[in-house]
Specification:
The chain is of the alpha+beta class and 78 residues long. It has one domain. 41% of the residues lie in helices and 13% in strands. It has helices spanning 16-29, 36-53, and strands at 63-67, 70-74. It has a two-stranded antiparallel ribbon. A hairpin with a 2-residue loop joins β1 (63-67) and β2. InterPro entries: Ntn_hydrolases_N, Proteasome_sua/b. It comes from Seriola lalandi dorsalis. It holds the Pfam family Proteasome. This is Proteasome subunit beta type-4.
Length: 78
């Protein structure tokens, strides 16, 4: 569900200005068989890209995993 309330089935998505920087990484590196660890590594790549290219400092990110067990917050390794 995006900010215009349009709902589409997607394998991956990013929203806002940071999405312009992350979509190319997701397009290149996302696979249907990613493990959670690999997905978190891909997120770290996206965070690094946003921190490098975005005009405003974005030092903090929160990762929430949604799966069959519910929703949980995951601590960043870096």
């Amino acid at each position: 569900l995006d900010y215009l309330a349009s709902m589409q089935k997607l394998d991956y998505a990013s929203h806002g200005y940071g999405g312009f920087f992350c979509n190319s990484l997701l397009d290149t590196h996302w696979r249907a068989d990613l493990t959670e660890e690999q997905g978190l590594e891909l997120l770290e790549r996206c965070f690094k890209e946003v921190q490098t290219r975005f005009m405003i400092s974005m030092p903090n990110f929160t990762i929430k995993v949604v799966d069959k067990n519910g929703v949980r917050t995951v601590e960043r390794k870096s």
